[in-house]
Amino acid sequence: MYKILVCDDEKDIVSALRIYLTAEGYEVFEAFHGKEAIEVLQKQEIHLVLMDIMMPVLDGISAMVEIRKTSNVPVILLTAKSEDMDKVLGLNVGADDYITKPFNPVELQARVKSQLRRYMLLGGGNVKKDVLSIGGIELNDRTKEVTLDGEDVSLTRTEFDILKLLMEHPGQVFSPNQIYEHVWQDNPYGTENTVAVHIRHLREKIEYNPAEPRFLKMVWGRGYKMEGD
Q1: pTM of the full predicted structure?
Q2: Of these four, 2, 89, 121, 175, which has the most CB atoms within 10 Å of its CB?
Q3: Which of 157, 170, 169, 152 lies closest to 198, judged by CA?
């Protein structure tokens, strides 16, 4: 479920947007000025922001500047017809689109879907997870490189995908069937030995002592997990 942050100092507008967006299946978070919006973004994984320009405490333009220091989440500005210069300024500081009040719910939903689709297709939802690190292991999903204590580790595509899955969810146990289904994208039944072989090869490359693994561990009867050192 996509999470959308709605930020406007007019509570009636926030309430209306909540109704429109929840009807489409989105989870909605609320803020009533720019500072609150930034605080929500620091605590939640938000996939899109709808934000008014003219607000107390911290206006939408100033909030945009702060947001773009740490996030590329799509932002659609909610503007009045008289705010043409602010629209241009908002786009210049990193806003992705704008909708003029009073807005048409159908147009709003279309703009939201378009920005979310673009964001996810470009991998925006994974920006913060490009580089994963556990102990001395570092995985860069953008460059498809893995290092152990700064030294390059050569992995097959399958080994890389298994390692990425486990590093994205440290401490979580995945059964062999779950790993196979996620990595191979195929029917997982009867594949325990296939996964076990790849896990063994992976340990030989990323563990200091494969016989006594510190990171890629087996949980007897359940599966495998990654643990920090």
Answers
A1: 0.55
A2: 2
A3: 157
